[in-house]
Design brief:
heterodimer; A: mainly alpha; elongated; B: mainly alpha; flat
């Protein structure tokens, strides 16, 4: 019995630890990096891990660890902006559709379905290809693929919440629609949104690394985990440490967000979380 | 079943229109002049005018859209700016490679995800369940951009068991298929387990048990069958994602499918080809989603009765 209670908590704590470490790495990147991520020493290129360079050097003789901690800034910054925007847009679309119903719902949800019918990664890829690689375009492209998930989720939950007694009584005493939505319905969506955001963070980091890997994310000179993986692929046989450092970094961070997502779902949404791992 | 099928097909029409509209507007999203984007600003004026005419950009916007629809109705996706080949011919030539890879990946994913999910659900919180739980989490978290190079490094470069790239026999298919199947199987595993555990508390399972039906029969006949719907949904969505999301895996393994075609076209700014690939893949995505919807009817008679 003890085991059943503690194991998810250990995993959850482990996930939180990973995320905290990543935030620390991103915030304190200039102090943590052994040297400037753009500094090159071609003579030592592809050198393996050593005390001076904990994860070795890449094909230009730049420090891999320095690139990783600076890359954490890009990955976290992009993922965080994407989640913030798509969560807000999804919340507005979903709550208007779910709360008002009727033609408002028809119009809004048909639009959501239309975008949802388009494969996500492909949409992001095509958009970045057309708009050109930049941080702003990358965020726009990733937002377009993830807001629909939030909108559908919120709509479903609002449909259910608006029938509750406390919403009915608020309406009976004459509360305005805005007041009901903001004060009575939105607070009850918080748990659901936090859980969805955590999983969406994991998904966004994977998509972002994929686009950067293809050279379609941020401008080429920006250090990102995806571009590090791409350059590591060319020297895989001589210097596997480049690919493996970047790949494991992405994997561990995504694992962290998934662990926290699982844990939060158990915590905030016991109805759905009951049987999860 | 017939009305159910027809209704679902009708539901797919707005999705198709959406897909067509989005891919139509892609070219209008290019900042500045799309012709400059394709040919470069220094290109000859005559070439620019010719391309503008070929792409139909000299017409008013509504007329462009109508022409676009007319061409699509004749399966005319335009011509590549680069090779001047028909986009549709090129796309349908490349599709079998992507199809082969996707189906192989799906088969492998089901092969490891489904049984291990069922096995986990038979004894929740046991040792095997915890093992699969960890495996599922790791599988779900490993990005394709890493798994591909890692597999190449281990099995092709270090051990030399399998070839690195390009299409060929089963040995060429194995690495890219595994690199797609591992994350996919992890999702199937988690879904199967959760959905099995959801149904084992149902009354009909208790009834079957009290009748003295064997545990094995209960699991496979009563529980798994009812747990299948969410699994079918996930598999359908994932197959759609596979057919579209193989760009990275195909690039890593030099696989001559739609993904590498699209990626090459993006790099060469071959605009009609990008548009054609995007549209073709999105069509398939909608079709797979439709088939998934239809298969609910096969799995669950309640759905087909119209509720």
């Amino acid at each position: 019995m003890m085991k059943k209670i503690t194991r998810p908590q250990i995993l959850f704590a482990f996930g939180v630890l990973i995320i905290v470490l990543m935030i620390v790495a991103a915030v304190f990147a200039p102090w943590l990096a052994p040297q400037d991520p753009d500094a090159m020493s071609l003579a030592d290129r592809l050198q393996g891990p050593s005390w001076a360079h904990p994860l070795g050097l890449d094909e230009n003789g730049s420090d891999v660890f320095a690139k990783l901690v600076y890359g954490a800034r890009v990955s976290l910054g992009v993922a965080w902006s994407v989640i913030l925007v798509s969560c807000t847009v999804g919340l507005i679309f979903g709550s208007l559709a779910g709360y008002f119903g009727g033609w408002v719902e028809q119009v809004l949800m048909r639009f959501v379905d239309m975008v949802y019918a388009f494969p996500g990664f492909l949409l992001a890829l095509a958009l970045v290809a057309v708009l050109g690689p930049s941080l702003k375009n990358l965020i726009i492209a990733l937002c377009l693929t993830s807001w629909t998930g939030f909108a559908r989720l919120v709509r479903g939950e609002v449909l259910h919440l608006k029938e509750r007694e406390y919403v009915q009584s608020a309406r009976a005493v004459g509360a305005s629609h805005v007041r009901i939505l903001v004060l009575h319905i939105w607070p009850n969506l918080l748990g659901l949104l936090i859980v969805q955001s955590t999983f969406a963070m994991a998904g966004t980091i994977i998509s972002e690394s994929g686009l950067s890997f293809l050279g379609l994310g941020v401008p080429p000179e920006t250090p990102t985990w995806g571009s590090l993986l791409n350059s590591g692929r060319r020297v895989l046989i001589d210097a596997p440490h480049v690919s493996f450092s970047a790949g494991l970094a992405i994997m561990i961070v995504v694992l962290g967000f998934n662990l926290v997502g699982d844990g939060l779902r158990d915590l905030l949404d016991p109805r759905r979380g009951r049987n999860r791992i | 079943m017939l009305t159910f099928t027809l209704r679902r097909i009708l539901y797919a029409i707005p999705s198709l229109l959406g897909v067509i509209t989005i891919s139509f507007f892609l070219i209008h999203l290019i900042p500045g002049d799309p012709v400059d984007f394709v040919l470069g600003e220094q290109a000859d004026m005559r070439d620019k005018l010719a391309l503008r005419h070929e792409l139909g950009l000299d017409l008013p916007l509504p007329q462009q859209f109508v022409t676009y629809l007319e061409k699509l109705a004749h399966l005319d996706f335009g011509r590549s700016v680069h090779s001047h080949e028909s986009v549709f011919a090129e796309v349908s030539h490349r599709f079998p490679a992507t199809g082969e890879l996707s189906l192989a990946a799906l088969a492998l994913a089901l092969l490891w995800g489904l049984p291990s999910g069922v096995w986990s659900a038979i004894r929740p919180h046991s040792f095997q369940d915890q093992g699969f739980g960890v495996l599922g989490l790791i599988g779900m978290s490993v990005p394709g951009v890493f798994l591909g190079p890692a597999l190449i490094y281990l099995f092709a470069m270090r051990l030399g068991w399998l070839p690195v790239s390009e299409r060929g026999g089963i040995d060429h298919l194995l690495l890219p298929a595994v690199s797609l199947a591992l994350p996919l199987g992890a999702v199937i595993l988690r879904m199967t387990r959760a959905s099995m555990l959801e149904v084992v508390h149902e009354d009909y399972i208790r009834t079957a048990r009290s009748k003295g039906v064997s545990e094995r029969w209960i699991f496979f006949r009563h529980a798994l069958r009812n747990a299948l719907i969410p699994i079918v949904t996930i598999v359908g969505l994932q197959l759609g994602a596979l057919l579209t999301g193989t760009v990275i895996t195909e690039t890593i393994f030099d696989w001559p499918g739609l993904g590498t075609l699209l990626y090459g076209a993006i790099q060469r700014r071959d605009y009609p080809m990008v548009q054609g690939c995007v549209l073709f893949v999105a069509f398939i995505y909608v079709a797979v989603n439709l088939l998934t919807d239809l298969s609910y009817g096969l799995v669950n008679p309640k759905v087909r009765m119209g509720k």
